Amino acid sequence: MSEPHVTLDPRGLDPVQRKLRGPLEDQLTSALQAATERVRAGYGGEPVEQVCQRLLDETRAGLHPDIAAGFNPDMDEFCRVAVAIVRGTVV
Q1: Assigned domain for 73 exists
Q2: Domain of life, per the record (predicted)?
Q3: For residue 70, which of 22, 30, 1, 13 has the smallest C-alpha distance?
Q4: Domain residue limits at 83
């Protein structure tokens, strides 16, 4: 699996968020990649569901509180990253 990346659907964004879409995607991607590395490094055999929740928590912790509060990712995609961590296939 390549490094995870966040892409925002412009249809779900307000006008201000659409203007800031690029920098916002960059910040979310950076937080997700850092969280992925921390979760991967600390993985100790937990189930996928727990890894997925930890990944979400760690990602939100790496964001400004206002951004974290509005961050509602596609959990299927987050769980795909968690599965890759569990399988040891995340880069």
Answers
A1: yes
A2: Bacteria
A3: 13
A4: 15-87
Q: What is the four-CA torsion angle of 48, 38, 84, 27, rounded to 10 degrees? A: 110
* Entry pTM: 0.90
- CA 12 – CA 90 distance, rounded (Å): 28
Number of domains in the chain: 1
Question: Does 10 map to a domain?
Answer: no
pLDDT in tens, the chain (91 residues): 578 999 999 998 889 889 999 999 999 999 999 999 999 999 999 999 999 999 999 999 999 999 999 898 999 999 999 999 999 987 5
Within-domain flag for 8: no
DSSP-H helix ranges across the chain: 15-19, 21-41, 48-61, 65-70, 75-87
The answer to whether 39 touches 55, Cβ cutoff 8 Å, is yes
Does the residue 5 lie in any domain? Answer: no
DSSP letter, residue 63: S
